[in-house]
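Final report, Chapter 2: Outcomes

The project's central promise was a pipeline that accepts a single protein chain and returns its three-dimensional structure in a standardized token representation, suitable for archiving and comparison. That pipeline is now operational. To close this chapter, we reproduce one record exactly as it appears in the project archive, with the input sequence first and the structure output second.
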Amino acid sequence: MPQTADEPDAVAVRSWCSLALEALGREREAIDAINVYPVADGDTGTNLYLTVESAAAAVEAVFAAHATGTSVPSAADAVRAMAHGALIGARGNSGTILAQLLRGMAGVLAEGTGGDRMRLALDRAAAWAREAVAHPVEGTVLTVADRAAAAAAQAAPGADTAEVARAAYEGARAALDATPGQLPALARAGVVDAGGRGLVTLLGALVEAVSGRGPERPYETPVPFVPVGGDAECPAGDDGDGGGPAFEVIYLLEADDEAVERLRARLDALGDSLVVVGGDGLWNVHVHVDDAGAAVEAGVEAGRPYRIRITHFAADRAHARPEPARRAVVVVVPGDGLAALCREAGATTVLARPGEPPASGELADAVRRAHAREVVLLPNDADLRHTAAAAAEQARAQGVRVAVIPTRAAVQGIAALAVHEPDRSFDEDVVAMTSAAGATRYAELAVAERQSWTTAGICQAGDILGLIDGDVAVIGQDVPGTARKVLDRMLAAGGELVTLVLGENTPPTLAEALEQHVRDGHLAVDTTTYRGGHQGAPLLIGVE
């Protein structure tokens, strides 16, 4: 949206994310096609798109939180959300570096706006990104970021944000054109750096967001030169010999600064392309290694790793994937305990941490990882309905038949997965799973964060809320008492099976007490209990 750039506000940040996502969507395949360094796996454009998608979703969440009032978020709230969203959703080497670039900018812009702040923001972004990479290489996105910051610094004194952004864009564009002369892998393939190309796209979107019009000279990605007898002559690493580590390992990590410094040293000894970004206890770790298990174990020793993604480069290079399965199920789960349960049942899982719902790209990636001709997708959250639909469209465009069953809670997903039969026809299987999910009423317990009006009356901060089918039905003072009231209300309408999913800090004695309560008051009703792990809610309940 057009903006007087001396004071870019939250709306400009939102516009920047939206324009960047749209532009990367257009350029994604072209950027993928020129991806030859550090590994020619053809996914830089996709990774940048998914990273910005996560950033944009976080900004939209901030705006949604203000939707009930008359105010909009502050610029500080918006840029911090953008940086956090990019951090938790960063994909690949390029996405991880982009997350650090945005984090560096956000740290400055959250404290003030204007042309001078934008100069400082771009300078800090370039410096922080370079510091995050264990062994910086010239001719990459790091060089492009440096030149963008240098060009911004040379903008006329008193220049506003739009003028500084334009200067940065032109500097990045010139630097990108020079990358083949700095990195032999690019020169051999006849391409510019893919990550740097993505940064030029991002800066072009920034220019449009703060000025209302795009760059005067839009950059067009050149078609790569493909030498005879090879697909880019540089499938991995600096030497172009097709070698390099076999795995890419990425995870989010909760750890303190001292532990992360030790982790950097250990991972640097294990592999290459090491990038560690973040701060304030939350980090995104990216590394290429031959021993993926050792990389994950190093994270466990440093703190708490989660959202672990491991990609086998060797399989991609050999183009030797096995034949796809006939059918698979992809399930979104709120905790690692349920994730293990669903994986045991043969499903591909996507972990949704509290306040961090997966983006459509993450769901589409899970559908691809399932490697099946037919996929049933269980979002297990009403708010993920549109996200799941978008992911399904992405997968269908790649020839996968996808059905989204609109499950609104994890217990509905468990019920659907329990009746899944891959030997049935696809339509029959979807109907049976949909029927099982629809026949399952769901509830959860939550802790009230503030005084507010609910459908069950006024609650106070710290009260235990019992939500049935999404609405507050019970307000209690403790978890056991509230859970009993919720169960009684649900079973009053009948039921044959109660499913209890306990949160990470919920004692197992609660399940024993609730099972006894069901036996005493409701004959012929069975109870099944699972440990949900780190799922946010202390208790999830299903009745079918």
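Archive annotation: DSSP finds 19 helices and 16 strands in the chain.
This record, like all others produced under the grant, will remain available to the consortium after the project formally closes.
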